[in-house]
Amino acid sequence: MKSRKPIVIANWKLNGGFDLLCSSVASFVKKSFLAEVYICPPYLYIRDLLHFLQYSVVNIGSQNVSKYQSGAYTGETSAQMLAEAGCKLCLIGHSERRSMFRENNASCQIKLKRAFENNLMPVLCIGENLEEKNAGITKDILSRQINESFEALDIADNSFCIAYEPVWAIGTGQAATPETAQEVHAYIREQLVSLFGQDKAQQIRILYGGSVTKLNTTELLTQPDIDGLLVGGASLDAEHFMSICQQV
Ligand code: PEP
């Protein structure tokens, strides 16, 4: 039995609309789960979803956060605003943000700081792309992503998660096997031990993401270092996402 509480996060990306809001409400209101469950909708729906899901145990998170606190930064949303709106968590450094919006380990570090300052639980997304996997440098990439994101940060009592999302598995239908994912998660935990010590590292939840469906959920979650799931495509069907959450 793991001591870390399982966590399941839906990442709607730039998808969803009132139909999905309504079907999520129908599925999740008055249900309970053994896992902590979060939905990260597009910013525009955060308040609506919070209102609709007030009689549920589902929490709301954001898919991103600005590295700026306020000022002339058109289109940005600050950690303080997200926290005030009711978000409990924010994703940081998703591979789509890294590849399409030029985010890197340095910007992730600033975003982690902003999240900590505002009591948003950050979920740092890391993962290698196909080229890096084929070149056999997965561990080097992950180690750099972790070390460069956290260096110079005082994490003290802050809580955060890591999401291992191999880029080659995102949206492709080719999830990592539970064994491969476990091997990588164990490596990530070793890195966390070196950075934060054994006690803290054992408390940090490491999620797997990349083509998770209701069919591979149980096998992934029975691995000793897989503490939760980050779900993209399969979370766009409320019943499907519900079935993932219920398997925990
Ligand atoms: C994601 O983008 O975070 C993700 C895991 O996507 P998918 O589940 O669709 O692979």
UniProtKB/TrEMBL annotation:
InterPro entries, sorted: Aldolase_TIM (IPR013785), TIM_sf (IPR035990), TrioseP_Isoase_bac/euk (IPR022896), Triosephosphate_isomerase (IPR000652), Triosephosphate_isomerase_AS (IPR020861)
Localization: Cytoplasm
EC number per UniProt: 5.3.1.1
Domain of life: Bacteria
GO cellular component: cytosol
One BP term from GO: gluconeogenesis
Keyword tags: Cytoplasm, Gluconeogenesis, Glycolysis, Isomerase
Catalytic reaction annotation: D-glyceraldehyde 3-phosphate = dihydroxyacetone phosphate
Principal place of residence: cytoplasm
Binding site for substrate: 11-13, 171, 211, 232-233
Function: Involved in the gluconeogenesis. Catalyzes stereospecifically the conversion of dihydroxyacetone phosphate (DHAP) to D-glyceraldehyde-3-phosphate (G3P).
Similarity field: Belongs to the triosephosphate isomerase family.
Record text on subunit structure and interactions: Homodimer.
Protein name (Swiss-Prot/TrEMBL): Triosephosphate isomerase
Taxonomic lineage from the root: Bacteria, Pseudomonadati, Pseudomonadota, Gammaproteobacteria, Alteromonadales
